[in-house]
C-alpha cells in the first residue's frame, strides 16, 4: 500500500512538473509537441526567419557559373522567408487536443542572369540581377493530438492534421522576358501554398526527468493530389530529437538534431516558362523544373525557453531557437539552407 502511494505521488509530481516548468515544451520550432488537460486552451504566436544563401548541387556548393554551364539562363542567388503563425489549441478531453494554425508568409528571391543572355539583360533594364517577391496567407492547418501512453514522466502521443489549400499558388511578379518586365507566374518555390489537401501525421515521445527532459518526434507531409497548376510538391519526412536542461523552473536550455527529407516536385508548373524564346536551346531557371526540388539535410537545434514566474504575464512562455545545417544534399541545382531562426509566445489557460 505504501509503495503504491509513493509511486502514485511520484507520477502526479512528474505530471505537475511537466506542465509548470520551462522545459515542458520542446524548442519553439517544433510544433505539436505537447497535449493539454480537458478544458484547457492555449494561444500561440511564432515568427520564423529562414535564409537560403548559396547554390548547391547535391552536397557540393557550386557557383552561378556552373548553373549557367548546365544550360540555365537564370540562377537563384539568395532567398529569404519570413513566416508568422497564429495557433490555437483546445482539449475537449484529457485524451484529445485539437489545434489550428494560420500562417502568413513573405518571401523574396534574388536572381542572376547569364552574362551571355544579352536580350534578357536588355529587357531587364541592363541589369544582370532581379528580385521577385510574394506574400500572403498560407495553408491553414487543422488537426488533433491523441494521447497514446502516459505513465509517470513518460508520455507518447500521435497527431494527424489536414493542411487546406488556402495559400495562393497563382502569385506573380515582375520578371524580365518578352515584353519587358511584366507580371509572370512565379515558380512553386515562391508560392504561398501547396495547392493541395495534405495530410500531416506525427508521433511524439517525451520524458521529463528531475531537471531535464528529452523528446523525439517524427512527422511528415503526404500530398494527396496534383494542384490546379499541374504539379504536386514532394512528400516530406522530418525527425527531431532534443534534450532540455532546466536549471530553474522558469528557464530551460535545449539542444538537438533534426533530419529532413523531401522528394522532388512531380509534374509540370503550368504558366511557368521552361525555355527562353530568344534561346530555345537553353533552360530558364532551376526552380521551373521539379528535379531541382527536395533533398535532405541534418540540422543542429539550439534553443531557450522562458516561463514567466509571476506578475501580469505569469505562466506566459517566451522561446527562441536557431537551426544550423550540419549537412545537406539537395536534388539538382537549388539554394541551400543557411540559417533558420524561430521565436514565439505561448499562453495556456
Describe this structure in words.
Residues 1-18 form the signal peptide. This protein has one domain (2-348): Beta Barrel (Lipocalin), CATH 2.40.128. The longest helix is centred in the first third of the chain and has 19 residues, at 2-20. The two termini are 35 Å apart. It has a 12-stranded antiparallel barrel. Strands 8-9 form a two-stranded antiparallel ribbon. It has a two-stranded antiparallel sheet with strand order 12-15. The chain is elongated and about 70 Å long. 9% of the residues lie in helices and 56% in strands. It has helices spanning 2-20, 64-69, 118-123, and strands spanning 41-57, 60-62, 74-93, 96-113, 129-137, 141-151, 154-163, 172-177, 180-185, 198-208, 212-223, 231-232, 236-248, 251-262, 266-267, 295-307, 316-330, 333-348.
Keyword list:
signal, 12-stranded antiparallel β-barrel, Lipocalin, disordered N terminus, mainly beta, single chain, 349 residues, Alpha amylase, 3 helices
How are the elements arranged and paired?
Blueprint (H helix, E strand, L loop, with lengths): L1 H19 L20 E17 L2 E3 L1 H6 L4 E20 L2 E18 L4 H6 L5 E9 L3 E11 L2 E10 L8 E6 L2 E6 L12 E11 L3 E12 L7 E2 L3 E13 L2 E12 L3 E2 L27 E13 L8 E15 L2 E16 L1
Antiparallel strand pairs: 1-2, 1-3, 1-18, 3-4, 4-5, 4-6, 6-7, 7-10, 8-9, 10-11, 11-13, 12-15, 13-14, 14-16, 16-17, 17-18
* Helical content (DSSP H or I, runs of 4+): under 10%
- What count of structural domains? 1
Secondary-structure-derived class: mainly beta
Poorly predicted parts:
1-18
Spatially, the strands of the biggest sheet line up as 1-3-4-6-7-10-11-13-14-16-17-18
- Strand residue percentage: over 45%
Amino acid at each position: 500500500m505504501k509503495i503504491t502511494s509513493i509511486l502514485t505521488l511520484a507520477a502526479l509530481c512528474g505530471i505537475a512538473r511537466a506542465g509548470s516548468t520551462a522545459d515542458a515544451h520542446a524548442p519553439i520550432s517544433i510544433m505539436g509537441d505537447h497535449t493539454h488537460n480537458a478544458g484547457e486552451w492555449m494561444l500561440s504566436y511564432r515568427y520564423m526567419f529562414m535564409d537560403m544563401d548559396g547554390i548547391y548541387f547535391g552536397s557540393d556548393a557550386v557557383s552561378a557559373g556552373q548553373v549557367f554551364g548546365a544550360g540555365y539562363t537564370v540562377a537563384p542567388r539568395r532567398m529569404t522567408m519570413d513566416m508568422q503563425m497564429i495557433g490555437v489549441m483546445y482539449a475537449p478531453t484529457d485524451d484529445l487536443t485539437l489545434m489550428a494554425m494560420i500562417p502568413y508568409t513573405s518571401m523574396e528571391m534574388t536572381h542572376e542572369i547569364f552574362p551571355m543572355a544579352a536580350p534578357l539583360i536588355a529587357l531587364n533594364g541592363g541589369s544582370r540581377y532581379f528580385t521577385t517577391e510574394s506574400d500572403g496567407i498560407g495553408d491553414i492547418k487543422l488537426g488533433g493530438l491523441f494521447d497514446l501512453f502516459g505513465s509517470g514522466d513518460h508520455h507518447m502521443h500521435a497527431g494527424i492534421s489536414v493542411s487546406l489549400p488556402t495559400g495562393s499558388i497563382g502569385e506573380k511578379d515582375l520578371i524580365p522576358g518578352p515584353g519587358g518586365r511584366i507580371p509572370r507566374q512565379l515558380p512553386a518555390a515562391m508560392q504561398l501554398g501547396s495547392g493541395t489537401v495534405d495530410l500531416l501525421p506525427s508521433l511524439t515521445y517525451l520524458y521529463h526527468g528531475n531537471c531535464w527532459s528529452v523528446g523525439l518526434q517524427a512527422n511528415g507531409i503526404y500530398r494527396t493530389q496534383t494542384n490546379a497548376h499541374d504539379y504536386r510538391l514532394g512528400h516530406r519526412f522530418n525527425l527531431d530529437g532534443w534534450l532540455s536542461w532546466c536549471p530553474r523552473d522558469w528557464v530551460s536550455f535545449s539542444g538537438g538534431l533534426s533530419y529532413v527529407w523531401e522528394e522532388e516536385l512531380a509534374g509540370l508548373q503550368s504558366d511557368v516558362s521552361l525555355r527562353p524564346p530568344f534561346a530555345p536551346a537553353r533552360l530558364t531557371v532551376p526552380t521551373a523544373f521539379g528535379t531541382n526540388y527536395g533533398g535532405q539535410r541534418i540540422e543542429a537545434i539550439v534553443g531557450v525557453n522562458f516561463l514567466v514566474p509571476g506578475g501580469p504575464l505569469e505562466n506566459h512562455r517566451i522561446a527562441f531557437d536557431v537551426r544550423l545545417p550540419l549537412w545537406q544534399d539537395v536534388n539538382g541545382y537549388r539554394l541551400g539552407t543557411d540559417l533558420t531562426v524561430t521565436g514565439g509566445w505561448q499562453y495556456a489557460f
